[in-house]
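User: Okay, second chain of the day. Same drill as before: sequence in, structure tokens out.
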Amino acid sequence: MAQAGYAQFCPVAMAAEVLCSRWTLVLMRELLFGSTRFNDLRRGLPRMSPALLSQRLKDLEALGVIRRAPGPSGVLEYHLTPAGEELRPVVEAMGVWGQRWIDSDLSLQQLDAQLLMWDMRRRLNPEPMPKRRSVIQFQYPERPAAERCWWMVVTPGEPVDLCGVDPGFDADLYVTSDLRTMTAIWMGYDTVRGALATERLKLVGDRDLAANMQTWLGLSTLAAVARPAA
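Assistant: Same drill. Structure tokens below.
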């Protein structure tokens, strides 16, 4: 929780003491999106230190927002309690407000390749894809070497696998753009067709995968939020 409280009995102030400490709300976002393991939470919060993540999880557990227990494989997992689930509309409403009212240029100044790829991985829609293993390589040429290439391996009946190193399979589709363009597409500020038309996006490989990218990409859960007229 926050180091210094508001010293007010008001429920809004008390809730803010719990939820408004640094990283807590975005940690709740990851938990509400279904991440339950420490390493998966880290992939959705790549700039949060492991020590701080561990502390915030302990804080939320002490407050009764989450509980921890071994999963089916014996690995420790974190699950929302009824108190945690009740925060879902709160976090969703904040996301809607941010998508609607925060200028898109400000959002696109906060680029993060790992977060983008992790979000894309969990929202990817395999239905319009071939009923076989499909490997899609994303390339961001302007990024540092560690963030430049990513692979998604989509196998029917299995979770989508996101790799930061070559998984050893031939790519069916190469997707090349700058990170800002791909983030804008993901957030609903741009489209695959628009980026292709202006040559900010290049697709090389399987024609069906390329033609259906706007559909299988899935997009952010907030991409459809209407923005005020300019």
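Residues 123 and 221 are 8 Å apart (CA to CA).

User: Thanks, on to the next one.
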